[in-house]
Design goal:
It is a single chain. The protein is of the alpha+beta class. The chain has 15 helices and 13 strands. Strands 1, 6, 7, 8 and 10 form a 5-stranded antiparallel beta sheet that branches. Strands 2, 3, 4, 5 and 9 form a 5-stranded antiparallel beta sheet that branches. It has a 3-stranded mixed beta sheet with strand order 12-11-13. Helix 9 packs antiparallel against helix 10 and helix 11 runs antiparallel to helix 12. It comes from Raphanus sativus (Radish). InterPro entries: BACK_BPM_SPOP, BPM1-6, BPM_C, BTB/POZ_dom, MATH/TRAF_dom, SKP1/BTB/POZ_sf, TRAF-like.
Length: about 400
């Protein structure tokens, strides 16, 4: 009874976990082109004598192409040319697939190709045992036919070869890993800016001064690069005054240049007001375009798109036009032109600014509204003509709409 109980308990014990591994065999491929110029001068060199290509590396081994103008074997009596690929470095049982192509130089594409690739090999890949081992053809081409063919052009032959070295590996589950820290490059540059060490340029913006590093600015902005290092650079590149920009906006600009991200906007402007954030994004868009910071410009466009309202859309539309933000402009036009928004937008101070700063946009807006109206009429179909007594032309009673 005791033995039976032990066996039953063992049978109920959990099975050991299944482990898996995979053997992967594939070829590492490489190509080489060998041009044999002055073919007629190679004839008569003697049976077994060759001209060789430069060595090339595939799969960690060196290879070379050998061309025998008078053939490789005496029994062929110099009637054939021979062509081989040879292992040119030390190796033991190097398994590989080969392809030799004699190029048709007439442009007709009728190349002479001998290839292992793309077909099933009865005995598998070819194996080379030592340096100097070869694969190829003793009777690759009859000389008489070769010399009257399109393979010979300007007394030259062109040979292309492909070598695929067979490699195998076994992959199993990994019981180990080495964690890689996330990049903190932005934090390092931001700390550099905060420390003030090595700063070599001072900016004066709206009465406030900011120090920075010329190389960092020039790396991030092509405008700063030209201003600080270009042939037309400012005479004094140690102290530069920035006009037509408020100091908080320049501070955000510098932060982005070093950190590649925006600071906490709520902390910057002292409020989480959506309208205040939109105002900052509008000013920052102009600054980003001024210094060709395309990623910052795209971030501002995205934030302005999210913050479109009746009161902000007109100014945002004007900025989109002035700073070539075509996607943002399209979104603004669509918002303004909608029947439920148009009248309200036209009564805002922003619309007055739009008329003054970008009068040409009014024409585009009218065209957009006209297209929307035309589409609306087509979509709704022909309207019925309603008479004064509430009947249509067919005498049927219709219900009047309140407008």
């Amino acid at each position: 009874m005791g033995t039976t109980r032990v066996c039953a308990e063992l049978s109920k014990s959990p099975k050991p976990p299944l482990t898996l591994s995979t053997s992967l065999t594939e070829t590492v491929n490489g190509f080489h082109e060998f041009k044999i110029s002055g073919y007629s001068l190679t004839k008569g060199v003697g049976v077994g004598k060759y001209v060789a290509s430069d060595t090339f590396v595939v799969g960690g081994y060196s290879w070379a192409i050998y061309f025998y103008p008078d053939g490789k074997s005496p029994e062929d009596n110099s009637s054939y040319v021979s062509l081989f690929i040879a292992l040119a470095s030390e190796g033991t049982d190097v398994r590989a697939l080969f392809e030799l192509t004699l190029v048709d130089q007439s442009g007709n594409g009728k190349h002479k190709v001998h290839s292992h690739f793309g077909r099933v090999l009865e005995n598998g890949p070819y194996s080379l045992k030592y340096r100097g081992s070869m694969w190829g053809y003793k009777r690759f081409f009859r000389r008489s036919g070769l010399e009257t063919s399109d393979y010979l052009k300007d007394n030259s032959l062109l040979v292309r070869c492909r070598v695929g070295v067979v490699k195998s590996c076994t992959e199993g589950p990994r019981d180990y890993n080495i964690p890689v820290p996330v990049s903190n490059l932005g934090q390092q540059f931001g700390s550099l800016l905060g420390s003030g060490k090595g700063c070599d340029v001072t900016f004066v913006v709206d009465g406030e001064t900011f120090t920075a590093h010329k190389l960092v600015l020039a790396t991030r902005s092509p405008v700063f690069r030209a201003q600080l290092f270009g042939p037309l650079r400012d005479r004094n590149t140690d102290r530069i005054e920035i006009e037509e920009m408020e100091s908080p906006i320049f501070k955000v600009l510098l932060h982005f240049i070093y950190w590649d991200e925006l600071p906490d906007m709520q902390e910057l402007i002292g409020t989480d007001s959506r309208s205040a954030s939109t105002l900052v994004a509008q000013h920052l868009l102009a600054a980003a375009d001024r210094y060709a910071l395309e990623r910052l410009k795209a971030i501002c466009e995205s934030k302005l798109c999210e913050g479109i309202t009746i009161n902000t859309v007109a100014v945002t539309l004007a900025l989109a036009e002035q700073h070539h933000c075509f996607q943002l402009k399209a979104v603004c036009l669509k918002f303004v032109a909608s029947p439920e928004n148009l009248k309200a937008v036209m009564q805002t101070d922003g619309f007055d600014y739009l008329k003054r700063s970008c009068p040409s946009l009014l024409t585009e807006l009218l065209e957009y509204v006209a297209r929307l109206s035309e589409h609306s009429v087509i979509a709704s179909g022909p309207r019925k003509e309603v008479l004064a007594d509430g009947c249509d032309v067919n005498g049927r009673r219709v219900k009047q709409r309140l407008r």
